[in-house]
Write a structure and sequence with these properties.
alpha+beta; Uridine Diphospho-n-acetylenolpyruvylglucosamine Reductase, domain 2; Uridine Diphospho-n-acetylenolpyruvylglucosamine Reductase, domain 3; Uridine Diphospho-n-acetylenolpyruvylglucosamine Reductase, domain 1; four-stranded mixed beta sheet
Length: about 300
């Protein structure tokens, strides 16, 4: 890895970056060591330039949305973390909304409401970007990205641009084809339906209230720690195992919703990882169910 040459190319091309940037400042868990280089991309051209440089100088690249589904290593992330949150344009054309992938899901929900478009209300309160949402096929309250996305534009680390239709995205429960390839989603096309302003707002309000009531939003977390095992609820299994309030270091199983591991008090990645392992073992021995994490671990082992 020739980091100095990579940084020089970024500088020469006016691409903003920070060195040794703490990832705990960029994750909803407020956990994570330093990224060697933290790049804020402004547009597709910058992305293509930085990927070409990363290839030439052998620098690994990790794509970051809002960091709301990540557990980042205390040892940080090698190479470049590329933050897309500044690529956040949103355009409305009739019943279609076209977003740059760094747009926040909540901002798109508000835009949909302002244009009396219904279908996105479920995503109001999911604290990620449109790109991260598609990558994860984010969903809640009976709907998911799969139901409203029609197309996405992407680039590849080799500098190719392309588009993909919904049927090729293989969207399933918290999964997509983007987990299996290295494509970087740059734009997402939603197809919504005409609705009533007031009803859309009422639905959004209702779902936010439900989140506030049920979820430990007062603590940093990465949302549901585990995927829903078929036929069960992760939170219920964890609760049945008596683990609500279980603490390891600064990490704790929420007392409000057992499906959330929270950063209760200055937790680090090690604390969370040990708590996750503990929960998985206890639930497996008590209920015979193997919990799989929804949260994605990133960084140096
Ligand atoms: C309080 C709370 C509540 C939550 N509630 C929900 C919920 O109800 N439903 C739900 O599904 N999730 C929920 N989440 C989890 C999380 O918000 C979603 O998974 C979200 O879609 C992640 O988006 P992000 O931009 O933060 O992605 P990140 O966490 O930054 O990244 C997640 C993955 O996506 C990849 N990625 C991000 N952007 C791109 C891109 N443009 N191209 C290619 N890959 C990309 C990253 O490399 C990474 O592998 C919740 C999280 C929190 C903290």
């Amino acid at each position: 890895m020739q980091l100095d040459s990579f940084k020089r190319t970024l500088g020469e091309n006016g691409i903003d970056f920070l060195l040794n940037e703490p990832m705990k400042n960029h994750t909803s868990f407020k956990i994570g060591g330093n990224a060697d280089v933290f790049v804020s991309a402004r547009d597709e051209e910058q992305l293509l330039t930085l990927f070409a440089a990363a290839k030439e100088y052998d620098v690994p690249v990790f794509i970051l949305g809002k960091g709301s589904n990540l557990l980042v290593s205390d040892k940080g992330i090698e190479g470049a973390v590329v933050y897309l949150g500044n690529m956040d344009g949103i355009t409305v054309k009739g019943e279609e909304i076209i977003c740059e992938s760094g747009a926040s899901l909540c901002a798109v929900c508000v835009k949909a409401k302002e244009n009396s478009l219904t279908g996105l209300e479920f995503a109001y309160g999911i604290p990620g970007t449109v790109g991260g949402g598609l990558y994860m096929n984010a969903g809640a309250y009976g709907s998911e990205m799969k139901n409203i996305v029609v197309k996405a534009d992407y680039i590849t680390p080799d500098g190719c641009k392309g588009s993909m239709e919904l049927e090729d995205m293989k969207l399933g429960y918290r999964t997509s084809v983007f987990k299996l390839n290295e494509k970087i989603i740059t734009r997402v096309y939603f197809k919504l339906k005409k609705g009533e302003d007031k009803e859309i707002q009422a639905k959004m309000n209702e779902l936010i209230s439900r989140r506030k009531e049920k979820q430990p939003l007062e603590y940093p977390s990465a949302g549901s720690t585990f995927k829903r095992p078929e036929g069960y609820f992760a939170g219920a299994l964890i609760q049945q195992s008596g683990l609500m309030g279980k603490r390891i270091g600064g990490a704790m199983v929420s007392e409000k919703h057992a499906g959330f591991v929270i950063n209760y008090e200055n937790a680090n990645c090690e604390d969370v990882t040990r708590l996750i392992d503990y929960i998985r073992q206890k639930v497996l021995s008590d209920s015979g169910v193997n919990l799989e994490t929804e949260v994605i671990f990133v960084g140096r082992k």
